[in-house]
Structure formats: structure tokens, C-alpha cells
Amino acid sequence: MKKKLIIIFGCIVAILLLATIIGPRLILTADRQEVVAAEYNYSEVFFDEYEDVRNHFLLTAEKLMAENENSDLYSHVINKNEDLYIDTLYLPSKTDQTNLIVLTTGVHGIEGYIGSVMLDVFWEEIYPQIDKENTGVLVIANVNPYGMKYHRRYNENNVDLNRNFILDWNSFDMAVNKDYPKVDKFLGPQKRMKNALWHEAGFYTSMVGQVATKGVDAISNALLGGQYEFPEGVYYGGAGDEKSTTYVKDVFEWTLEDSNYENVVHIDVHSGYGPRYSMVIFNSAYETMNEAETKALFGYDNVISYDSEAFYPTTGDTTDFYYRLWEKMGSKATLFSTCFEFGTIGDSFLDSIISMKYTIEENQNHWYPSKNKIMNEIVKERYQELFYPTEKEWREKAVEDFAAACNGVLNAKLISE
């Protein structure tokens, strides 16, 4: 009997050891990004490093400026020692200052890679059709260069810049997110991740406990709205304007007054939310068009507006700020500001859990780096998938959707002479 118990115990130990050794490798294999195809639409500009993105933008800007009089290129310093800059290209209209198209990319650093590609799509497929006599273009590229360089959503201070565009910090309630403190320990674990298999088991066990005690809504509200009390937490909006935010705010103010354009159309490019293989036009809470009206006007089906079931309010994002600034200034210009969001993981309940998990893991590994090589690789692969998938089908569909949505928005919103 004792011999049988020893054998059983030995088998259990052996199974656990095998699971501990093999399990993480199986997880990594499952999570590895698809090998990038050799050739596909715009494949030559799907870059993987910030330096390549920036160099390409500057070369493109030079060519465009050679064809446009009075154009301007300005590189705003974020960190000179690390060569971190926000690059701004302005191509003014030739005669009448009627329309100004404003494009922003890389507000969430890692999302700047897909934003960079979409700028190429804009120059190749949209810009040639624009009436340059009455329409100018202003591009603010790589708003969060630190996040791009280090493949993070957040900036050098762990600030989510799309929660940092607060109109008035003096009157702003820093405790606006009432749910985040309830789940802070779950969303911001203060420990190193070790073996990937046991980490998976621990995460889902903890999540079940959080759902049971705090509820799904509390977790969802804590994540999406932004928070201002936990500097090491996810979606941290900061305690004041970041360098990037100050600069972009000044540029937005210029577009609404000193630029003298009658009509401003702004598109902010993002990725990570929504159904996979689909780009969503995500309107600001301050935009009065409802979902049906937006779809009809733009001729584009994937839309989220204030009345959409999938709509969620945020605090401190660029599009909301633009509208509030416009109202505060009493600008005579008309304004339409929206977000183009490329879905990656998906929009099912399970997909939202996976997205949350990847977000938590990346931030945890930033503050408490794992000493486990496989765990580090898993976190990296997952974060890439969350914002910049390598799959050929996804990338080609992203290009297709951007062109269609951009044409729809500009055809409807630009004033023609």
C-alpha cells in the first residue's frame, strides 16, 4: 500500500513538473504572432521600430513640402537625449482657407505604428483627391514618442495621454473614477510574474473572485474611463498636462483661431478596441450626430456614437477636449472631431477579458519585470497582438477600412466651393 502511494505521489509530482516546464512553452507557442507575410498591401511601411517610423515620416514630409509652397515641418522635443520628438507637418491651402484636415497619430504610443501606415494610405489614396485650393492638411505624428519607442500605450511618466486632455485641471475631480480604488489591487498587481502556467491559473482565479465580490460593471468602469489616483496603475491620466499634451493643446487652439480656417475636421487614429477585422468610427460624447445619422452621412456601417450600445464615456481624451476647447473659445470655425479605432482582439465578453488581461500584464511587467524569459516573451507577444497584429488579413482589412471611412468623413464634412 505504501509503495502504491509513493508511486502515485511520484506521478503527481512528475506531472506537475512537466506542466511547469512544458506549459509555459505551449502558451508562448499559442501566443506567438503570425510571421509577417513577404508582401501585401502597404507591406513596405508596416514598420516595427519608432526610428523607422519617424525617418519615413520625415522623408515623406520632404517630398510633400517640395510640392507645396509655404508648407512647414516642425519637430517638437519631448526628450532630446533619446531622440523623442512629435513631428508636425502643415500643408496650407493654396488660396482660400476653407477646410483644415487635422490627423493625429500615436497618442497611445504603440498604436502609432498602425497610425503611421494610415498616414501613407492618406497620402496615396485620399490626399490626391482633395481640393488643395481651399483645403489644408495638418499632421501631428507620434504624439507619444516614448510609448512608440518602447512599445507601450503610456508615456514616460506612465500617463495615458488619451486621458490627459483635461480642459481645466484646477476644477477637475481627481477622484472621478469611483470604481478604480475598489479593484486597484487586481488591476495593478505589485509583484513579479513567474511561471506562465501558474500565472494563468492565478489570474483567472483572482478575476472570478473580483467579479463575484465587486461585479463586472465595477471592473469595466474602472478600466475604460481613466483614473487619476494611482500613478502605477493602468489608464492613469496624470496630475497635470504632460509635455505632449501641452503641445497638442496649443496646436488645437491655433487651428480653431489663428489658422483662420472656416472648417476643421479632425481624425485621431487608434487601435485595440472593437471587433477584429473592423475599423470603427468612434464619435465623441460631445458630437450630436447619433449612430444612424453618422452611418447614413458617411456611408460607413461600423460606427459608435453617444446612443450606441457599445459606447462608453472616457475622461480626458483628444476628441472630447477638442469640442470643449472649441466651445470655450467660442470659435467661429465649424468642428468635427472623431476617432478611427482598429479592432484587434475582438468585442465579445471573452475578448474583453483577454484585452484586460494583456493590459494588466504589460503594466505589471513594466513596474515589476519578470525574471522568467518565457514570461517576458509571452507578455511582449500579447501586447503586440492587442495593438498591432502581424496577420496579413488584419493589416489589409485595416487599410481598406481606413480608406473607406476617411473618404466617407471627408466627402461629407469638407466644405466645397
So how many helices? 13
| End-to-end separation | 94 Å
**Gyration radius over CA:** 23 Å
What fraction of the residues are assigned to beta strands by DSSP? 5-15%
**Outline type:** globular
Can you write the helix and strand succession as a string?
HHEEEHEHHHHHEEHEHEHHH
Parts with pLDDT < 50 across at least 5 consecutive residues? none
Share of helix, binned: 40-55%
Task: For the largest sheet, list the strands in their spatial order.
Answer: 1-2-4-3-5-8-6-7
Mean pLDDT: 94
Strand count, sense and barrel status of the largest sheet are:
8 strands, mixed
Structural class: alpha/beta
* DSSP, total strands: 8
Please give a handful of descriptors for the protein shown.
13 helices, 8 strands, eight-stranded mixed beta sheet, single chain, alpha/beta, 417 residues
